[in-house]
Amino acid sequence: MHSHEAIDSGSARIKQLEAEGxxxxxxxxxxxxxxxxxxxxxxxxxxxxxAVSIVGADLAQLIGRDGEVLDALQELTRLAVYRETGExxxxxxxxxxxxxxxxxxLTTLAEETVAKVKETGSPVSLTPMSPxxxxxxxxxxxxxxxxxxxxxxxxxxxxxxxxx
Length: 164
Prior knowledge:
Elements: H1 2-34, E1 40-46, E2 49-55, H2 68-85, E3 92-95, H3 98-120, E4 124-125, H4 131-143, E5 147-151, E6 158-162
Parallel strand pairs: 2-3
Antiparallel strand pairs: 1-2, 4-6, 5-6
C-alpha cells in the first residue's frame, strides 16, 4: 500500500516541476520577444528541480560576465513561478549550455585542488563563486573524499578545500 502512495506523490512532484517549467517557459518566451532575441526553450526535470534552457545563436548578453545576467534572469524566472504558484522554486536556468560548461570546468578545478590538498596536506581557498558554483565544487570535493566549506560573505563567498 505504502509503495503505491510514494509513486503517487513522486508523480505529483514531477507534475508540479513540469508545471513550474511551463510557467518559466511562458515568462522567458515573453522576455525573448520583448528583447527581440531568437531562442528555443528546452524544458526538463533534473533531480528535484525544473530545468529550463534557452538555446540559440546570439544569447551571450543573457549570460553576462561570469554568468551575472544569467543568475539575475534565473532569480526573476523563479519569482515569476512563485507569483503563479505561491511555491518557492529551485528552478535552474541555463543559456546556450553555459552552466553545463561551467559545471565541467569547476569539477576539473575541484579535482585539481583536491590533488594539491592531498599532496601538501594544507587547505586551499578558491576564488569567490556564486552559490551554484560553490555547490558544484562541494559535490566534486565530497565525491573525491575530502571536505570543503564556504567562507566569507556574499557576493565574496568562497570554498575552502580541507585536508583529511
